[in-house]
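Shift notes (night). Ran F420-non-reducing hydrogenase small subunit while the centrifuge was going.
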Amino acid sequence: MSVTVASEWLNACSGCEISLVDLGERLLDVLNLVEIVHMPVLLDHKYFGQTGDKKHVDIPEAEVGLISGGIRNEEHAHIAAHMRSRCKVIIALGTCATHGGIPALANSFPVSDLLERCFTTESTDENPRTFEPPVPQLLDRCSALDEHIAVDVYLPGCPPHPDQLFSALTALVQGTMPELPAKSVCDTCPTVREGKGKLTELRRFLQNPFYSSPREPLDKMPCLLEQGFLCMGPVTRAGCGGDATTPRCIAARVPCRGCYGPVRHDGNPMLDMLNALASNGIDVKSLPEFPSLLRFAGAHRLLRPSRPRKER
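Came back to this:
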């Protein structure tokens, strides 16, 4: 018997849905086990009926609900709540849904500043930029999914690796709950680490890291953090490499940016990273900038607008 699946995308870019397509031939195996009853990115299924005759949002009932993207406006919050009422299990798909993702960087600014910056700079007295219904009202911040509804399964990643998505879906079909990796990126990183005290300052990633050859094995390359590049590996959940385990950014000789969110779901990557740097004798004042420490985890009120200097 197949499992019914409903899928929604909120404040998202469709990268998580592309990860589903990236299952390749395994997608055929999934489609043999599930029945997709609602997925706007792939299926033409309207909120208010195919002819718009219904007065309320009507998403079919499903055993599993996949929701990608965070919640930024009133429509997102309404759709998320409706999905929760129609689905037995809700999966927060991708880091935007689990921790706010890149869109939550906007939480550093008041909504009024965002609107003025993005929409009113080109307005004139004759052509003012106004937003009236049916344009959904923006909320005061970009939120993770679990700040509005109960979430049963978290699949972080920008986007989640197809291997993890496949494992999660097959586990649910088999009646079990999927398990996330509990290690950090550093725990799965093959680069060479010499230990504490070898570095006192950080520098911007404006040049190639040290390695003798692009074909050199990663287990011969010195740790990128110890080379002075800000690498979020110590405070980021592993898994971006899928079943191959090797972190994707590290495999490309690029420092981890934290796209899988904190190791602990309720962790604070900024605070944890500052503690990690300080404990290794690195001057935190040498950080190129601070917001990138919460590049993918600015929801849960971790990123807030800074007060004007005169109010400090």
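Residues 3-104+134-173 form a domain with the Rossmann fold fold (CATH 3.40.50.700). The beta strands are 3-9, 34-38, 62-68, 71-73, 87-93, 138-143, 153-155.
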